[in-house]
Each structure stands twice: as structure tokens, then as C-alpha cells.
Amino acid sequence: MPEAATDAAAAPGTAISIRGLTKRYDRLVAVDELDLEVAIGETLALLGPNGAGKTTTVECCMGYRVPDEGTVRVLGHDPRRDRAALAPRTGLMLQEGGVYPHAYPEEVLRLFAAFYRAPLDPEALLERVGLTGSRRTRFRDLSGGQQQRLSLALALIGRPEIVYLDEPTTGLDVAARRSTWELIEELQADGVTVVLTTHLLDEAEQLADRVAIIDHGRLIAQGTPSELTRAEHPRVTFTARPGLELASLSAALAAPVTEPSAGRYLVDADNEPELLVRLSRWLAERDERIEGLHTGTSSLEDVFLRLTSEDAEVVP
């Protein structure tokens, strides 16, 4: 059997190369001339609001969707044409579904393991994701968090070189979330390329080597978490009761104040001592309790909210 064709233009050390990717659904442009590269062994967090084009991009990388324009190359291969060559080298964790509801975790893992030449040990993997006690529980009867952990195990059973993780910690409790982070960090240490889609900005900051923010199918920012937050000038953020009088507070501080999310306020000014005094005085006069205060560069959440909000204003 001849070896599947590869793309000679793929740069050495590149796991995923996306050039001018455009995908439409009728009149909706889901992905709009997207250019993006992921290095071998890199963890990329793909961030964006709902409907930004993240899932469609991953589906094109997996060969599930055909681009209307542009090219996608994964490990030098066309993911649609060379799916047979790529399937043993990639893993995909779906956010939900994908498992027969009457199947048991143990039998599903053993079935998937049979598809690969050198799979991980199903028993050890069940233990690693905390499902040993649920090995004979039907998938439909597992909790949402347990289903997530099984989906993660299925993505890893074949020892993939690239793994796509779609919201991997959704529905997990704190301990299971931390365990999942540790498992992803083990993948990173083994040189596995990870593409992570998440709505949890602290997760992206913790795990990602690089962050790509997509909105309306377009790449609007990318860089390491520290690069993206360092680019922002120093600001003051605090948490308090949602719905404070922003006009009055802005006037008292002589600086713009916004509420990018409920109860989370951003003061667009340097953290001078006098500014903090005025803020404390304004809150005290109204008997408002401050729950948290941060000074310095913006968080990744601040950057994300600002960029996606600004982009939404210019896109019809």
C-alpha cells in the first residue's frame, strides 16, 4: 500500500499549518481566512465566544469538514485526503457524546485500544482518569464529569502525537479538574501537541504555551499568556456587587470604569495611591463591600473580554 501523500511545503517542526482557511455554512462565514500554525510539542489554547469558529477549525484539522478556501496540513498531511495516515497519530476529545449509551467504560476503552498498534493499557488509563470504580457502569448512567473523563481517556488510548481537547474540564469538580490538568501536563512533558478549546481563562493561562483568540471566524490576537497580558497597560480591577453606578464612579475616579462581566470592574488607569483612596472612599460612602482588588497588568480574561467586545462592535 503506497504511503499517503504529504505536503512538501509544511515547515519542519510544524504540527498544524492553517493557511487562509475559510468555511461557510450557507450565508454564515464560520471561519474567515484564518492563518494559524502550531509547533510540534506546543500547547495552543484556542479561545473565542460561542460561535467564533473554534469547533469548525478543529473539525477541518480532523478532516471532518472540507475547507471552502485555503489549506490545512496536519503533520504534513491533508487531513481529509490522508485521514487513514493521520487517524492513528491524532486523538480527539469531544465535549459530549460519541459513546454508545449502553456501553461500559472498560469495554469501550478496550475496543478503542484494539484500533492501535501500541495503545496505552486500558486498566491503567481507567485508574489514571479516576474511573476504575465505574468500569462496569453504562455510559448513560455516568455523571457528566465521568463521561468527560472517559472521553479524555478515549482521546489518549492510542498514544497520539496530536490531541484535540474540546472543553476538557467542563462539568468536573475541583479535584477532577486538577487531575485533568496534571494529565495534560504529562502529555506536554512527553512532547505531545495539544490543541485546547476552553472557556476557562485560568485554564488557558495554566496550560497553554500560546493562546489564539478567534472571533467571528477571524484571528484577532495570539501570543503567550504573558505577552498578551503584558501588552496591556497597568489597570485596576476589582469585584463587588453587580450594577454599581459607573458614571458616578468614573467621575469620582476621573478615569473610565467598565463592568466587563457581572460584578467585575475594570478601571482604565494606573494604580496610583490616590486612585485607590478615591475608590475606597466612593465604595464606603455607599456601603458597598469590595470582594477582590487587583492592580498591575490585565488578566487574560480582561484581554479576552476587551478584544472580543471591540471586535463585536465593528462586525455587522
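(ticket continues) Second input and output from the same batch:
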Amino acid sequence: MNLNQTRFITSAAKFGDCPKDSIVEVAFAGRSNAGKSSAINSVCDQNQLARASKTPGRTQLLNFFAVEPNVYLVDLPGYGFAKVPLEIKNKWQRELEQYLRQREQLVGLILLSDIRHPLKEFDRMMIDWAVKSNLPLHLLLTKSDKLKRGPAQNTLLKVSEELKELGDVSVQLFSSVKKTGLDEVKSKISEWAKINN
């Protein structure tokens, strides 16, 4: 699977707008400002594929990127968006939940969590949801370049220990800046896509 050829296809404002030709989807989820857009750009080796923003909560659409025919990466709205009216926030929460619960093409979830503040309440909700839905989940502890090697490894061990009883949940260190952990996450995406394609 050549992720370098990935291209943006469409943004869905609601669940019904998701691509009809899709067979397999791997979704990227995380709190606002966890680094989803940067991670997608790094994984696909492209600078401007997913638009990174300095304003948390900019991604308020389901953004679909075609890796190859019928195989998509999906950038989900950052949860806990800042500076978004409550009415819009609630609408997005509903759309996101519907996508996660009903999208049959979804084969795996890449969850991003800032290594300096791992496993916040929203992250735990997503992990819990994935476990209950039997959906494989791979956790990226992002911005690992912000910590020295020892503290980063300690956080990884602590989080791994906490998640090990949960079934199909894996975890790794990741940094878009230093390109740390790219091969690991790419191989996870390929593994999920091949099994289900």
C-alpha cells in the first residue's frame, strides 16, 4: 500500500455524505490540537494533504482521503473543540457518533493523544467505545519529541500497562516533527486495510 499517493477526495458535513464507493476506512481521531492533520501529512509524506491549523477545532467535517481505489483515511473532527458554539458542537458530536457507530467500512481507529497529557477523559471515551464495538484501536502518543527519551519511554510503558487488558488496543510513541514511529503506524494501517480489503 503506497500512502504517498493519498489524495483528498471530499469533506462530509453529515453522515449521509460519506463516499459511496468506500470499502475500507481507517479513521484518525483525537482531541483538538492533538496533531491529527500533522500525523496524516507525515504518514502520507505530504506537507499540505490535511490542513493543520493553529486554531484547535478547525476540522469540523469528516475529511476523506483516498489511499487507493475504495480505501480511505478519514480525518475526524477534533473532539472538545475550542471556540465553537454549543449548538454546533452538539451537532458534530452526533455526526461523529453516528459515523463511529454505523460506518461499516470503518476497520480501525488511530487515536492521537498528546504524550504530555495522555488519556484524558475524551480519549478514554473513544477507547471504551472502540473496545465495546470490537474495533481495533492504535494509540499514538503524539509530540513525543517534546519529552526526553527516558520520560517518553516511561509514559509509553505506563499507558501500555493500563491498556493491555483491553483487547485489540496497541500504543506507540509518535512525532510528526522528528518522524518518530512512522513505519509502525504505516504498517498498522496497511495491516488493517489488507485484512479487510
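Agent notes: The two ends are 11 Å apart (CA to CA). The beta strands are 7-12, 24-30, 62-68, 71-75, 106-114, 137-142, 169-173. Closing as not reproducible unless the customer responds.
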